[in-house]
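haha ok so turns out i had the wrong file open the whole time. this is the CORRECT one, sorry everyone. sequence first:
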Amino acid sequence: MKWIVGLGNPGASYRNNRHNVGFMVIDRAAEQWGITVGQHKFKALVGEGHVKGQKVYLLKPMTYMNLSGESMRAFMDFYKAPLEDCIVVYDDMDTPFGQIRLRYQGSAGGHNGIKSIIQHAGTQSFNRIRVGVSRPAPGYSIVDYVLADFTKEEAKTLPETVQLAVDALEFALDNSFDKTMAKFNG
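then structure:
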């Protein structure tokens, strides 16, 4: 079993925000894999299906970003799901827009969703796909930046980046995360 958690905020007003790129990746993966993400469980929208012969769960925490770890912990406890079978997908300002970076450990780097996951998982070691949203211009509010929609220019190429993240997820279903990092961090 593999489980993938995409971070974002619930509600139509947040749908196209930079902070919701994790939800966008889950939605694209669900579409590609024929999984409906609609069950309300574990303070999340959850979908389950089979991809490449593997049982896969897709989660979109509905707790708002800062409490994402609550949803993840509830899923882990119910399914006794090993953290090493999880991949968390989220926005990252230290990764240039249009790129993804894969890591299996590290600090939250100021990302409140990741802070919550570290707190509830009790470790900084878990697989992650960071989707680049770049940093705002100096003097621009970080909160306003991540809660703003992608620009029209960014929106043109965003689907390619989201698809790249889905490609990495799919590769990780039957390859080690180390091998996945080697392929997609190049």
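The chain is about 40% helix and 25% strand.
again sry for the mixup
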